[in-house]
Amino acid sequence: MQNQDELFLEHAQKTGKLSQQAVQFCQEQQKKGQAPIHTVLNENFLTLDQVKEIVEQINGENESLYFVTILPDDKETDDKETVESKFLQYIETNEIITQDQIKQALQEQERLQRMGYETQFSAILYGMKILPLEDIQKIYQQILDNSIQVVEDERAPVELGITTIRNYKDPEKNKQPSIAQSVQDALEKTTKGKKKTKKEKMDELKRREKAMMDQEIDNQESYEIDEDLDEVNVEKLAELYEKVSSQERKKHSASNTKEITNQLKEILDTIQNLSQQTTNPTIQNLPQETTNYWTANKVSITWDEAISYLKEGESIQNAYIQDIYEKESNIDFPILLQDCVLENITFQDSYILENVDFTNTIFLGKASFKGTHFQKNAQFNKATFVDGVDFTKTIFQEDTRFNTTKFKKYASFNRSRFEKKAIFSYAYFERGAKFNEVDFNDSASFNDVYCDHRFYLNNCIFQKETSFSNSHFQNIVDFSGSEFFNILKCKGTQFSAWCSFNYAKFHDECYFNGATITQDLTFLESEINSLFDLSHICAEKNINFKDSKIGEEAKFRFLDAYFGRLFLTSEQLEGHIDSHIKQHYRQAQKEYGLLKNNFREINEYGQEDWAYLWEKRTARYTIPNTGILNKIKKFLDWTTLDLSCGYGTKPLNILATALIVIFIFAFIYYIFGTHFLIPVELPNVTSISLADAFQVSFSIFTNASLTTWIPHPQSCLNYIMMIESFFGLFTMSVVVVTFSRKVIR
Question: Which is more confident, 233 or 651?
């Protein structure tokens, strides 16, 4: 695999920005430890704007590779990893970019490393457009000039380089909070929890008094609030917190500080226990069979009680609600049930006119939303469906989110319709899912999904961008008959079983780059009309495009792809190799070589010849058009090897070429033979016929003694005959090689 320096020099020479001599000089300096980009800038071969232009072009050709001018070389500086380490520390310490941007860049670097690219961290920042090239160079130069002093800390040991930095633990996230901070947090939590618990208990008491006016509530005392709730401890806590503050701590001796600290720890434990008791009320009147770990900290209420609160626009949290049944209902209030447990819930053929939020909610028993129409946003983020869920024929009018949702049993979305965004990122389908005949009228995101069982998306319509990137499918995935009107992304996706796109239609770009397929990946009788990217794919078995229709605008990418066997014919591929179309001939040469090896493995020798022919042709295209020697080389390669025999793949062409050469020389002998040729056995003959001229040419071309005519000793035809004899020897050797290759194979 080419490194960054090789790519830069190759591209600069190919585009005519660097001469061959300049490239050779850069390569010599590179052997001495100086980066080519640094050389071209120091020697004024290129301006900084020209370097940036080349870098942007390389980034455009190599989608997964970021490229940038890295370290200015200095023999007296530390090694590159050390300087790169200092660079990261500097931008982090001085808050040049945010922590989120650093995290994103490090993740991207790890992704590229898994794909086989060793790209420096600063290159990632430039490629992701986080830092401009000028700023990167300025920071490097200042580090190397020792005008920037980077403080080494435990987060990123400089001597270990960038690899260690990638895995460092942020001390701000991992350090233990101070005693004072812990006490303050506990105090705030306790106070907040006390008020919240009081409100909850009072509201619960009012509800029960209203529902049971004629009954005596035996457990009423359990809902009474102790207004003097550990007030002494709270006052002590506040007082001691003030004593150990940053200003007061200096006034105390070490012994006093230790004593105060011990007191604080004791009170802190008391407050934390109190907080747990006040924020997690005891469940009242729960059926014994449902009082389990799912409902252990929930307050049991009825659905009617919940409705009375929801209609007032309030959200319900930490509640346990059983037996919700709404069929053909019009629900005109928001359903905000967060951190709840819902058992046996049915919203069948109903219209929900307001927002729905089931964030972090657990669904026990049957859960059915069959035929339901959600007219506003529907959120099921971090929800858990314990016993399966049915969304058959459900309509989602606005954005729908199932982020990090767990489906522990079956999940059915058959014949549903998503009018706006459908987001299932990080969802977990333990027993598989069915999305058959679903209409996704906006973008659909299934990124980082994990599925243990079969996943069906038959006959679906995807109108906007759809992504299954970085997902893991442990069983069969079936997209048969689906239609993709916009971009499909399966970047880095893992298919551990058979994956089918049979009879599917791809109207826009499709990306499988970096995907891993353990079993077969099939596109039987599918239709492809745009870019189809299989770069860096790892398919252990077959990729099958049998009988697939390849549209005029279809293009394929196979850069660094690996597959057991690819079933795709030369008729389907002819004129559809993306790198060839874009005249990236070096890349095209590699892809044709890959296809050649594949066709040989599946014993498709005709297809192999086609790939070999284009491999040789693209290799010829990489020769620069500068210099007379290069032009002569390309011309001879074209005439003697390509036109004559197709680089040995077209034996009939070489025979046709031989006949053409024989006729040309025969015509020469016919025109000039009367003056320069002598008949050996026919002294009275004064002119040569066309047949005799052909006989002379054939005899010389094949080096056979069949002619009765010889050239005059001092005739110039002697030299012409020598040229024909050379062509004959060369042509006959090519014929032998070509036919031998065919026969042996």
Answer: 651
